[in-house]
Design brief:
Elements (H helix, E strand, L loop, with lengths): L2 E3 L9 H11 L6 E7 L10 E8 L3 E7 L6 E2 L4 E2 L7 H19 L8 E6 L18 E2 L1 H6 L3 H18 L12 H11 L10 H14 L6 H8 L2 E6 L5 H14 L4 E5 L2 H12 L8 E5 H9 L9 H15 L3 H7 L3 E4 L3 H4 L2 H9 L4 H4 L1 E6 L9 H14 L3 E5 L1 E2 L4 H11 L8 E2 L9 E6 L2 H17 L7 E5 L18 E3 L8 E5 L8 E9 L9 H7 L2 E10 L3 H10 L6
Parallel strand pairs: 1-2, 4-7, 7-8, 9-13, 9-14, 10-11, 10-12, 12-13, 15-16, 17-22, 18-20, 18-21, 19-20, 21-22
Antiparallel strand pairs: 2-3, 3-4, 5-6
Length: 578
């Protein structure tokens, strides 16, 4: 019996894969077979899958692509049926070269091991055409597969094709001696991170799901049930209602089912945090692509944006460049996702060109694709609300999504969230309740300054107080309504403290940045500085965005010329000054 990883095949796997798996499982005992590898992390996150990697110690490595269809055709331009969007031979060849390239990098001692590919059509008759540039050793159709009466006969045919492919390639040579058991184990270890099905991790998956069950609120749990019966969903909710937790877990579950999934957001800092959080999850999921929308899409499309670009490039020029790349059918097939999960979706939906571009990366698009969008569509709209409303109307009209609303705040103390709502002039019904108990007047404070020197002194005193009560530097984030270069912390006005930009991965430092940059994130202590309300066009909802980042306490430093305005807002929550 061959060494199979995993030792069983999921019933949901295509029938052709199950047939090939069963044949391989009866192979020689020194053979090792890995089922369902996703090489996307090794190939710019492009769709790069291998159904089986077969290690034959005395011959080499075989990468197999299986197509289960009963009829497969090619007219010189297009494949049939239509769900075969790329040449299976090109797909297998690309995967083979990606596999070999990364294997050489990870384990140079295997660089002389020959790696070849093969397409198996267990149920379909197929005749190679002269213009396809495909060797006979690269195909096994239903005629040969059906004539293999046993695993031994099947494995004999595989080995014969491997040798033919190796002999036909002047750069490949049969091994001088078979791979040892130790070498075989080392080779397999290199592949574990890209294996989609990991039965050895089922216990850790169950444990994580039990932990999550304890964390989720009664209001959040139905989203997972909703996702079982609906392919398109919009989940709305204010800041701190747990949207990101649910989005993260939902994306992970989709990926564990075998789908190619993207979990994307607009904010750069939040995208980096999502990446780190997903990297810590075991087992790793190579078919789950996570991060900021621009980073993910440009990486797959092979676009390197110039430096020092303005928002017009990212929101108008780049989407058109990306869509142009996708006019190549082969590229479109390689970048396509089976499922799209978007957090902080309001930032993308309020930019129509970017929204259109994103859905070209999803199989089925807006109308027929599988997507779940999470967002605060009422209170955290930092771009065009008109554009957002138009996009939501379009989604409602074309996608007809199921909807769910989260209204219980599970991040902030009541005093922090209520004050943020009042200062922002929002409706009192943003939250239906607060899950966190406790909190008092001590969790909120505001002070006024007349100069940068005075503002720096007040900030320094607050930092001393937090240090005395046991808070570490990394527990505190200073946010400004200005850019970093214009902010109090960014200009180096506060002496005696070590600061670092939000973009710096520094320990034992107090991080600072803009309210916009920290959107989607959270920390124990949030201090808002440089609040100057007489500035023309001041957006009150920045208070809501900034203050709701706090899990414990909030402090605000406001210029004394704005004292009357701010005091009025705190009393009434009205919209007296915009």
């Amino acid at each position: 019996m061959a060494r199979m990883m995993p030792s069983y095949i999921d019933e949901k796997s295509p029938p052709g894969e199950r047939d090939v798996f069963n044949m391989l499982s009866g192979g020689p005992e020194d053979w090792a077979v890995m089922h369902s590898l996703d090489l996307a992390p090794w190939n710019r996150d492009l769709r790069t899958e291998i159904d089986f990697v077969v290690i034959v110690p005395d011959t080499g490595i075989l990468c197999i692509e299986v197509k289960s269809h009963r009829e497969i055709g090619f007219d010189g331009s297009n494949w049939t049926p239509a769900d075969i969007r790329r040449s299976p031979f090109k797909q297998a060849s690309d995967a083979r070269y990606t596999f070999y390239r990364k294997l050489k990098e990870l384990a140079p001692r295997f660089r002389h091991v020959p790696v070849v590919h093969l397409c198996i059509f267990p149920n379909a008759f197929f005749v190679l055409q002269p213009n396809m540039s495909v060797a006979e050793s690269e195909l096994m159709d239903s005629r040969t597969f059906g004539n293999c009466s046993s695993s031994s006969a099947f494995c004999y045919e595989l080995k014969r094709r491997m040798r033919a492919s190796i002999n036909a390639d002047g750069n490949l040579f049969l091994p001088g001696s078979p791979l040892s058991t130790h070498a075989l184990d080392d080779l397999i270890k290199c592949c574990i991170p890209i294996q989609k099905r990991r039965p050895d991790c089922r216990e850790s998956i169950r444990y994580r799901e039990q932990e999550l069950e304890a964390l989720l609120s009664i209001q959040q749990k139905p989203v997972f049930r909703l996702a079982e019966y609906n392919e398109r969903i919009i989940v709305s909710g204010g800041a701190g209602t747990g949207k990101s937790l649910v989005a993260f877990e939902l994306a992970r579950r989709y990926a564990e089912s075998g789908e190619r999934v993207a979990l994307l957001c607009f904010n750069s800092l939040f995208g980096s945090w999502l990446n780190r959080k997903m990297d810590a999850v075991q087992p790793q999921l190579p078919n789950l692509v996570v991060g900021r929308i621009f980073r993910v899409l440009t990486k797959m499309a092979g676009i390197i944006p110039p430096e020092n670009l303005d928002s017009d490039y990212w929101e108008k020029v780049l989407p058109l460049l990306l869509e142009e790349r996708l006019t190549d059918p082969d590229m479109k097939a390689m970048v396509a996702f089976d499922r799209l999960v978007v957090d902080e979706a309001q930032d993308i939906l309020s930019r129509p060109l970017l929204m259109n571009c994103l859905f070209t990366f999803l199989t089925g698009g807006i109308r027929d694709g599988k997507h779940v969008l999470f967002g605060d569509f009422q209170n955290q709209v930092l771009a065009s609300r008109d554009m957002l409303d138009q996009s939501l109307n379009r989604l409602e009209r074309e996608a007809r999504p199921a909807r769910w609303h989260l209204s219980e705040n599970c991040r902030n103390y009541r005093i922090v969230a209520r004050t943020s709502i009042g200062l922002s002039g929002l409706d009192d019904n943003v939250y239906s309740g607060f899950l966190r108990v406790g909190g008092s007047i001590g969790n909120f404070d505001i002070d006024f300054y007349s100069s940068d020197i005075e503002q720096a002194a007040i900030l320094s005193n607050w930092l001393k107080e937090f240090r005395k009560t046991g808070y570490k530097p990394e527990d505190i984030t200073i946010l400004s309504f200005f850019s970093d270069a214009k902010s109090l912390a960014g200009r180096g006005m506060v002496q005696g403290w070590q600061f670092a930009s939000l973009w710096q991965d520094a320990i034992n430092r107090i991080h600072y940045g803009s309210v916009h940059a920290f959107k989607g994130m959270e920390n124990k202590i949030i201090i808002l500085t440089d609040v100057f309300l007489t500035e023309k066009g001041f957006k009150r909802d920045l208070f809501y965005t900034g203050m709701t980042r706090s899990t414990e306490s909030i402090r605000i430093l406001c210029h004394e010329t704005s004292k009357d305005i701010l005091s009025g807002w705190m009393k009434t929550g009205g919209s007296g000054h915009e």
